[in-house]
Amino acid sequence: ELQGEIDNNFWEYVSGVARPSLSSMDTLSVGIYNIEMDTPCSYAVSEEGVLFKVPNKVGLYILNADWNNFQAITLYNGMKKTFALGGAVEITMIDSVSNIIEGRIDARVDNNSYINGNFLISLCD
Predict the structure, then answer these.
(1) DSSP 3-state percent helix, strand, coil across the chain (nearest 5)
(2) β-strand 113-123 against 15-20: which pairing, if any?
(3) What residues pair up with 19 in beta bridges, in sequence order?
(4) What element of type H or E holds 29?
(5) From CA 30, how far away is CA 16, in angstroms rounded?
(6) For the chain, N or C: smaller number of CB within 10 Å?
(7) Residue 118 burial (CB count, 10 A)
(8) Which of 124, 121, 125, 100 minimizes the C-alpha distance to 50?
(9) Do 114 and 10 meet the contact criterion of CB atoms below 8 Å apart?
(10) Helices and strands of the chain, counted as H and E runs
Protein backbone atom coordinates (compact mmCIF):
# COMPACT_ATOMS: atom_id res chain seq x y z
CA GLU A 1 0.00 0.00 0.00
CA LEU A 2 1.04 3.58 -0.66
CA GLN A 3 2.77 5.13 2.34
CA GLY A 4 5.71 7.30 3.32
CA GLU A 5 6.46 10.55 5.08
CA ILE A 6 5.13 14.02 4.42
CA ASP A 7 7.11 16.78 6.11
CA ASN A 8 8.71 14.22 8.44
CA ASN A 9 5.31 12.76 9.52
CA PHE A 10 4.30 9.17 8.71
CA TRP A 11 1.56 9.11 6.04
CA GLU A 12 -0.52 6.21 4.73
CA TYR A 13 -3.02 6.03 1.85
CA VAL A 14 -6.64 5.28 2.82
CA SER A 15 -8.71 6.61 -0.11
CA GLY A 16 -8.52 8.76 -3.21
CA VAL A 17 -10.27 10.11 -6.23
CA ALA A 18 -9.44 10.87 -9.87
CA ARG A 19 -11.53 13.01 -12.18
CA PRO A 20 -11.06 14.66 -15.56
CA SER A 21 -9.11 17.90 -15.25
CA LEU A 22 -11.03 21.14 -15.69
CA SER A 23 -8.62 22.08 -18.47
CA SER A 24 -8.73 18.83 -20.49
CA MET A 25 -10.63 15.54 -20.61
CA ASP A 26 -7.29 13.96 -21.65
CA THR A 27 -5.84 14.68 -18.19
CA LEU A 28 -6.82 13.30 -14.78
CA SER A 29 -6.57 15.28 -11.54
CA VAL A 30 -5.81 12.87 -8.71
CA GLY A 31 -6.07 13.32 -4.94
CA ILE A 32 -4.98 10.59 -2.52
CA TYR A 33 -5.82 10.95 1.17
CA ASN A 34 -5.04 9.52 4.59
CA ILE A 35 -8.74 9.41 5.57
CA GLU A 36 -11.85 7.69 4.25
CA MET A 37 -14.20 10.10 2.50
CA ASP A 38 -17.93 9.87 3.32
CA THR A 39 -18.67 10.20 -0.38
CA PRO A 40 -15.89 8.82 -2.63
CA CYS A 41 -16.40 11.48 -5.32
CA SER A 42 -16.66 14.46 -2.98
CA TYR A 43 -14.38 17.45 -3.37
CA ALA A 44 -13.23 17.25 0.26
CA VAL A 45 -9.53 16.95 0.99
CA SER A 46 -7.61 15.67 4.00
CA GLU A 47 -5.10 17.54 6.16
CA GLU A 48 -2.28 15.48 4.62
CA GLY A 49 -2.23 14.04 1.16
CA VAL A 50 -0.97 13.74 -2.37
CA LEU A 51 -2.07 15.63 -5.50
CA PHE A 52 -1.01 15.20 -9.12
CA LYS A 53 -2.16 15.23 -12.74
CA VAL A 54 -1.50 12.50 -15.30
CA PRO A 55 -2.67 11.75 -18.83
CA ASN A 56 -6.01 9.90 -18.91
CA LYS A 57 -4.40 6.65 -20.04
CA VAL A 58 -2.37 3.75 -18.71
CA GLY A 59 1.33 4.53 -18.63
CA LEU A 60 4.50 5.33 -16.72
CA TYR A 61 5.06 9.03 -16.03
CA ILE A 62 8.54 10.08 -14.90
CA LEU A 63 8.59 13.01 -12.49
CA ASN A 64 10.68 15.92 -13.75
CA ALA A 65 10.98 19.69 -13.89
CA ASP A 66 11.21 19.91 -17.69
CA TRP A 67 9.01 22.86 -18.63
CA ASN A 68 7.82 21.17 -21.85
CA ASN A 69 6.87 17.92 -20.07
CA PHE A 70 6.50 18.94 -16.42
CA GLN A 71 5.35 16.10 -14.13
CA ALA A 72 5.33 16.50 -10.34
CA ILE A 73 3.50 15.19 -7.31
CA THR A 74 2.46 17.61 -4.57
CA LEU A 75 2.80 16.29 -1.02
CA TYR A 76 0.93 18.50 1.42
CA ASN A 77 0.64 18.77 5.18
CA GLY A 78 -1.91 21.44 6.06
CA MET A 79 -0.93 24.55 4.13
CA LYS A 80 2.68 23.40 3.62
CA LYS A 81 3.31 21.92 0.17
CA THR A 82 6.38 20.25 -1.27
CA PHE A 83 6.86 19.07 -4.83
CA ALA A 84 8.30 15.64 -5.61
CA LEU A 85 10.30 15.79 -8.84
CA GLY A 86 12.21 12.54 -8.34
CA GLY A 87 10.64 9.20 -9.18
CA ALA A 88 7.55 8.22 -11.16
CA VAL A 89 3.84 7.55 -11.09
CA GLU A 90 2.43 4.64 -13.05
CA ILE A 91 -1.22 4.18 -13.94
CA THR A 92 -1.63 0.44 -14.41
CA MET A 93 -5.39 0.20 -14.98
CA ILE A 94 -8.33 2.51 -15.75
CA ASP A 95 -11.71 0.78 -15.49
CA SER A 96 -14.47 3.18 -16.62
CA VAL A 97 -17.16 0.51 -16.06
CA SER A 98 -16.32 -0.05 -12.37
CA ASN A 99 -15.04 3.55 -12.05
CA ILE A 100 -11.66 2.71 -10.52
CA ILE A 101 -8.04 3.52 -11.25
CA GLU A 102 -5.09 1.44 -10.10
CA GLY A 103 -1.49 2.54 -9.98
CA ARG A 104 1.73 2.92 -8.06
CA ILE A 105 3.98 5.76 -7.03
CA ASP A 106 7.63 6.09 -6.12
CA ALA A 107 8.19 9.79 -5.43
CA ARG A 108 10.74 11.67 -3.37
CA VAL A 109 11.32 15.24 -2.31
CA ASP A 110 14.02 14.40 0.26
CA ASN A 111 14.47 12.11 3.31
CA ASN A 112 11.60 13.92 5.09
CA SER A 113 9.01 13.77 2.29
CA TYR A 114 8.54 10.72 0.09
CA ILE A 115 5.89 8.12 -0.81
CA ASN A 116 6.05 4.66 -2.31
CA GLY A 117 3.51 1.92 -3.02
CA ASN A 118 0.28 0.93 -4.76
CA PHE A 119 -3.15 2.57 -4.78
CA LEU A 120 -6.70 1.85 -5.99
CA ILE A 121 -8.96 4.93 -6.16
CA SER A 122 -12.37 6.02 -7.43
CA LEU A 123 -12.79 7.42 -10.94
CA CYS A 124 -15.39 10.20 -10.87
CA ASP A 125 -17.12 12.33 -13.50
Answers:
(1) 0, 60, 35
(2) parallel
(3) 29
(4) strand 27-33
(5) 7
(6) C
(7) 13
(8) 121
(9) no
(10) 0, 11
